[in-house]
Amino acid sequence: MTPTLVRQHLPHAGRKPRVDQWARARDWAEIQERMLVPLYEAVYERLEVGRGTRLLGLGCGSGLALLMAASRGASVTGVDASAPERLALARERMLPEAGGTRACASRIVHGEPGDLTGPDSPAYNVVTAFEPIGCTAGDSEGLEELLEAAAPLAGRGASVVLAGWGPPERCSTSSVLRVATRHADPARGAVGWRPALRDDLEEVAERAGLKPDGSGRVACPFGYADVGNAMRGLLSTGLFDAAIAATDQGQVDKELKEALHPHLRKDGTVWMTNVFRYLIARTV
Length: 284
Description:
Number of helices: 10
């Protein structure tokens, strides 16, 4: 999804792949981000997000989850310390529509939760961290600290939502994502693939001082118009950058296309079934 689908992991050493960051941000917003819409909907329905909700989206990216909450009447704030191009798209999305059909308050901040503090800021009652963990080793790094920084901005007993990949046997995309880690070189700081574990979300929540209070699973199939569309969407996550740095763009494109082939349907579309898990925790 930054929020979105995966937490971005770039190589800590070696050359950085040359990419058009604006094109990548638009590929994310137009292709990949929508894959988690069923997850957002399920969470908002369960928490009855609507008028009276003050929602803080951590790692908000290009803001689709915020837009969906705003459409239900929530007052929304998004914060993200990376991908300024995605945040620019989020600000575009949250502009008032003609006729004032999106009248709820919204705020998009490039930075950390600490940048949101203010003397008269009312407490948030819903905090979301929708970037799923559980597809690469170490992809929860930094999440605990992010949640701890956001907790003082939320009221006591506020809902905090974490998301993660389901078990690999129920996630067709897991075999495709392994291309991202096939060329991982630990000496260069690259990350390897690992399956999601049952208590990943609970362990992060408890380390962050939150109290788990329910969970759920949601089917989020990844559907693409064709193989090229699928490759653009998946590459927009940034998850394949380490592999590109370790080899080259052509090699990763070739392996990614091969990994997508089993999911190619007769009409040329690509379809991968997945299950994602969410945890609702409470501030104490």
